[in-house]
Amino acid sequence: MTKAEPGARPIVFVTGPSGAGRSSALNVLEDAGFEVVDNLPLRLIPALLDSPGQERPLALGIDPRNRDFSTTSVIDVLGRLTGVPGLAPELLYLDCSSDVLLRRFSETRRRHPLAPDDRPSEGIMREQEMLRPLRARADVLIDTSDLNVHQLRTEVVHWFAPEGQHHLSISVQSFSYKRGLPRSVDMIYDCRFLVNPYWQTELRSYNGTDATVAAYVKADPRFDAFAQQVLDLSLLLLPAYREEGKSHLSIAFGCTGGQHRSVVMAETHALRLAENGWQVSIRHRELDLRQKEEA
User: Do 261 and 192 form a contact (C-beta atoms < 8 A)?
Assistant: First the structure.
């Protein structure tokens, strides 16, 4: 691995034979804060680097499907960028044995990009021979033959995000059971057992973001225990999800109308997660819908 000057912008070229894990490695780098561009024509790289306001580290997926790909061109680009102040170009090569690549293509029944009309073994041999100069030039070489996707993530993070820059973003939302469950939610909690402000005439027209409504719901003797146990469960599971490589987790609280109890719980839970250092966004589905209808 080349030694970069302090503060230099990392530019990681990611390549290797098809099936070796290039896409998975790019996903890891994206989760670690890199801007990821896949299969960009090599001639467009200077224009990409000259774009104003670009300060994030950059990861470029390079393989023979690039329109103007050649190993000589890739090595030339790396050589030119190495001499540019403020940039730290590196080549990450993901290698894999021929028999494992053949097994992976057989399992997925995909055609090899360099042998669409031939056996995958022919494409594998052609590509490995073509990429041999890049393998020899690599700053970091990771053999994925015996790695699963989680072990590959660990290797990529080790080399390019040693400070553990992988983030897990959490969205917390409230919803109404009458309108159905929200899509793509990881955890759902039912708040319909809590005391319902709807039956209090003076509270009915307000929602759970109102302090008086929140105080009414929190006065339910079951609220504190419920909120604490939900928090304890989240604090137990969130580090495990992050280690697993998950980049986003959605937690939803539901009640009958999605206006009061679920809103109070979502607000409470989001605040407590934020106080524990987690990156949290919050959404109230029914309140958002009402605002749109009234606009």
Answer: yes
240-247 CB contacts, 8 Å cutoff, 24+ apart: 241/168, 242/166, 242/167, 242/168, 244/150, 245/28, 245/31, 245/149, 245/150, 245/153, 245/166, 246/168, 247/31, 247/166, 247/167, 247/168, 247/169
pTM of the model: 0.58
Both structure tokens of 16: 């290797």
The tokens describing 81, both together, are: 């960028």
Q: Name the DSSP letter for residue 46.
A: H
Identify which of 81, 12, 68, 19 has the alpha carbon closest to the alpha carbon of residue 40: 68
Domain ranges, ordered by start, for the chain = 9-160, 169-294
Q: Give pLDDT tens digits for 266-295.
A: 999 999 999 998 888 899 999 988 877 765
Alpha-helix residue ranges (DSSP H) falling in the chain: 22-31, 45-49, 71-82, 98-108, 120-137, 149-160, 211-218, 223-244, 261-275, 285-294
Please list the residues that pair with 255 across neighbouring strands: 176
Tokens of 216: 């009414």
Question: If you search the block for the tokens 């329109």, which residue do you land on?
Answer: 67
Annotation: CATH topology of 9-160: Rossmann fold (3.40.50)
CA atoms of 98 and 48, how far apart (whole Å): 34
